[in-house]
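[audit] Reproducing an earlier prediction to check determinism. Same input, same settings, fresh worker. If the tokens differ from the archived copy the diff job will pick it up downstream; this log only records the rerun itself.
[audit] input (339 residues):
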Amino acid sequence: MCYTLTATTCIAILAICCSLAEQTLPWTKEQTALLAKSYLRYLVAKHAFGQAESLSSKNSNTDIANQISASANKWYQREIVDIRADLTVALGEQAPDQFKTFIARFTEAEEREDSVFLKLIGDSLGLAPSPENYLALRSAAAESLLRSSMDNASEFLTDIQTWLDLAVRRQNPPPLDLWLARNQAETPRSPSERAARPVITKRANPLAEAEADPPKRGSVSDDSMGTPLESLASARQDRRDAALADAKAGMEQIAAERRAAEEDAAEKKLARAEAEAEAMKKQAEKLAAAEKEAMEQRRNSWGQRIKGVVCATISAATGAFTGGLGARAADEALNAIFK
């Protein structure tokens, strides 16, 4: 009996050791932190994009709906590009495979409530005390890794919702892209960004210059003059060449003047557009100041909702799916970011 108990105990200890050995992470702490942050950041971006699209689809005004949808797509793509760039810089060509592997292992371990993997991830992220469960892991990771991303998403959704509310109340807000850019500092154009215009010089008398100069007396010997007919033909050819050269110069001058006129008109048009944009920006700032309290409440509300989604994503998903969750989650994130 004692021998059997000892053998059983040894087998159990061996199984635990094998489990620990199998659960070692193939990434450094820095890589693990980046992979976890990238995955959670993707979930934040995906949720924010879905919420913006929902606001768009519920609006009956086609122009308003299109503006929201276009801005949501731009914002989402910027987030995806940033995530992809971070992963590629850190992991190179292996970034897609490593990202997919991490998500699959993380999701499957969470689905099984794997405590060994939980501790390995918590240690790699430098979380202290070590999280007791995956909900605590996500909550701690959100605070330590995702604060700026969640703030960015809640700010974006707050701006969308506030602009939509202003439009519904007929407060005549500026176009959504200008409303979203109201807090961005303007970058003045440098002189090199302005096209250099050609220097145009006008000749005093083009017709006079087209005439061939008369030969000077005594400048050419009688032997080199040739026959009078040859001299006349040569003079005519000189005049033709001069007229052709003048015509070419005249066309070049007209083209240069046209370019200068077009550039001047474009510069004036750009100046008017910049002035209109600046006026709309000031209008947006004035409207935002009037909506400050409401925007702060919306910002806090969106922030709590986004954090809740990050912390409860897998719990919600496991209620709808059974089995293969890790592979599906990995494929979805991989396709969104790298394909």
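[audit] rerun output stored. Observation attached for the diff report: The mean pLDDT is 80.
[audit] end
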